[in-house]
Every structure is written in structure tokens, then in C-alpha cells.
Amino acid sequence: MKSEDTPFVGGPLDGRVLPVLLGPTGHPPKVYRVPVPDEAGGEPTVLVYRRVPAGAARRFGLHPGWKYEYSEDGTAGRGDEGGFRNLKWPWSKPGGGRNVPRRDDLDE
Predict the structure, then answer these.
(1) What is the pTM of this model?
(2) What CA–CA distance (Å, rounded) separates 29 from 31?
């Protein structure tokens, strides 16, 4: 798999550049979670970083890459979880399921 050296800004990883695996589109993940083990053996602390453009768009609108910014409140903002489960399709109904009558209902 391909990886890209990505800088981290803010939080405990401030100033570090770590290799981050790229997805099928060639971009790093939108949210990067780093579990930090607890010294007392308890629940690990999870540091949350959000992907943002590394700088302003240059010629032809191409940005110079990505960087991760620390999220102090532990959330990644909008689209925190990501994935297909949170997508709102235009044909989806608010109540879930389809409103197609069953064959049993048509025979009556």
C-alpha cells in the first residue's frame, strides 16, 4: 500500500511527520485516531486529528497536500464517523424501509 509523510499540527504530536496509509483514492483518511496506552493499565486515551489542506491552492487549483490538525474536544466535526452508514441518499425516506405494498395486501 502507498503511504504519504503527513505533518501533524497541535496536540501531543505537534511538529511530527508520520507516514499515513493512503486510501483507494490516493488521499489519507479524513480522521486519524491515535490510541495512547494508559500507564496505569486503564482505558487508552484516543487522540483525534482531522485532515485539512496543507496550504492554499496554487496554480490550477491544486493544493500542496494534507496535514492533520488536533481536535481538542475529541470529535472530528461533521462526518465524524464517516462511511456509508451516515450517508443521506436523496431517495431515502426518513422512516427507513420502502413503501411498497406486499403481495398479501394486494390480494385482499
Answers:
(1) 0.65
(2) 5
